[in-house]
Amino acid sequence: MTGTTPRAPRPASDSALTLPRYLREPADRRTPLDYAGYKSTGLRAPLRTPVDLPHRLTEVTGPVLGEDLVTAADADLTLREGGEAQGQRIIVYGRVLDSDGRPVPHALVEVWQANAAGRYRHVVDNWPAPLDPYFDGLGRVVTDDLGRYEFTTIKPGAYPWGNHHNAWRPAHIHFSLFGQAFTQRLVTQMYFPDDPLFGQDPIFNSMPTTARHRAVSRFDLERTQPNWALAFQWDIVLRGRDQTPFETDDDGDVA
Amino acid sequence: MSADRLSPLVLAADESNDRRQGTPRRGTGFLTEPFRLGTTPSSTVGPYLAIGLTWADGPDVVAEGTPGAIWLRGRVFDGNGDLVPDGMIETWQADPDGRFDHPDDPRGAVATPGFRGVGRSHTVEPAGEYAVRTLKPGRLPDGEGGLQAPHVDVSVFARGLLDRLVTRIYFADEAEANAEDAVLRSLPDDASRATLIARPSADGYVLDIHLQACAAKGMDETVFFAV
């Protein structure tokens, strides 16, 4: 280093480099890991307090994938194996937004669910309800430019499980979303309005009281297709982001 | 809207106003705090995650035959020290140049061709084990003037986990880089750092994940992060 050579003026674009910062929902509005009513958390939820991880490049970036994993047929769960699934046909649709209300476009949405009788096509599920040869319970969709998604499926049935006396899961569809950054990753479940089983279900009730309604879809008569399918609307909200300055050195590298 | 977050305008109201003190002024059109939608709460993947979350090429961050490819392998254990046979791990990482194939990388996304960055492996078969085929990541800026050690971000999902767990994989043969890494340095002791450091193996690296400590089997709880 000479210490005397004047530095070239920094190009304007370098000073504008920023990394997004993703907002963290307060703990009392998030689903806790250790929920006593749900037995399986006992040996699995970590006992130590998690360590805060500042958001760096690894956390503000994330998998951007979907289009090459999904075909149009993946959005219709009622037509599989050359036949038509049994049960009440429903359309499930909505938008994927962040908490600032911005749409999350091109996000991969993966769903899986039980059939109309409440049985999963899985070797471990031995609940004696019929399997449906034309229903595998798997769907994938990618959100459009406005964050919209839509798929056609069968309303899943309730089913018993061994968590506690007379335990039944309310009807639900599992959802998995990547969003646009590692911090936005979300796996959750969509429920149906006015389910009588909510009161005794620890997985539903593990969600904070103030957040539970966000996991329940809305019956939508307007989008119902006459003589064909009922419709339920469910919007999914991922964490929003702020812009925070990110320092760069004189070469424009992130330093 | 809590009373301590009302706008100065509202808090300054007094008896001369035509409304009760501390209540928002109707019809002003102004919000008294930032508008935010509440996020959708997370839930467990349940025992049947393999129905919806299995990809034939899930473990492939890079394709078979990629020069320099390694396997990240490990097992997932619960608080009894038993294998977790119904979970899933996902990995997210930079390429060997320390770059992400993502529009928010301010250095410009220049990823290695064929490098996906993401890996997904369920622990169903073989029970309790995960394996991801990838390239070892490079060092990358930590945003505070230093460099991060090569690392892989990891999400853990399973029946009995109501939210994903987040941890990191570091590499034992990067001692110098690890010693400079801000995240590793922020941990309280070497024992907790050790839970994140993968050991070299015949075809790559190995790191087991422990959801809880199991003292009877000498297992320490993995460090998990709040993101």
Name the descriptors.
heterodimer; A: 255 residues; mainly beta; Protocatechuate 3,4-Dioxygenase, subunit A; five-stranded mixed sheet; four-stranded antiparallel sheet; 3 helices; 16 strands; globular; disordered N terminus; B: 227 residues; alpha/beta; nine-stranded mixed sheet; two-stranded antiparallel sheet; 5 helices
- Assembly type of the chains comes to heterodimer
Give the second-level CATH assignment, the architecture of chain B: Sandwich
Low-pLDDT windows of residues of chain B: none
- What is the structural class of chain B? alpha/beta
The CATH topology assignment of chain B is Protocatechuate 3,4-Dioxygenase, subunit A
What is the CATH C level class of chain B, in words?
Mainly Beta
User: What is the assigned CATH homologous superfamily of chain B?
Assistant: Aromatic compound dioxygenase
* Poorly predicted runs of 5 or more residues of chain A: 1-17, 244-248
The domain tally of chain A reads 1
Outline of chain A: globular
What can you see in these coordinates?
Chain A: This is Protocatechuate 3,4-dioxygenase beta subunit. Chain A: Belongs to the intradiol ring-cleavage dioxygenase family. Chain A: Residues 1-24 are annotated as: Disordered. Chain A: InterPro entries: Intradiol_dOase_C, Intradiol_dOase_core, Intradiol_RC_Dioxygenase, Protocat_dOase_b. The complex is a heterodimer of chains A (255) and B (227). Chain A is mainly beta and 255 residues long. Chain A contains 3 helices and 16 strands. The two termini of chain A are 18 Å apart. Residues 1-17 and 244-248 of chain A have low confidence and may be disordered. Chain B is an alpha/beta fold and 227 residues long. Chain B has one domain (49-217): Aromatic compound dioxygenase (Protocatechuate 3,4-Dioxygenase, subunit A), CATH 2.60.130.10. In chain B, strands 1, 2, 3, 4, 7, 8, 9, 10 and 11 form a 9-stranded mixed beta sheet that branches. The model of chain B has no long low-confidence stretch (mean pLDDT 89). Classes of the chains: A mainly beta (255), B alpha/beta (227). Strand 2 (51-52) of chain A pairs parallel with strand 12 (225-226) of chain B, so a sheet runs across the interface.
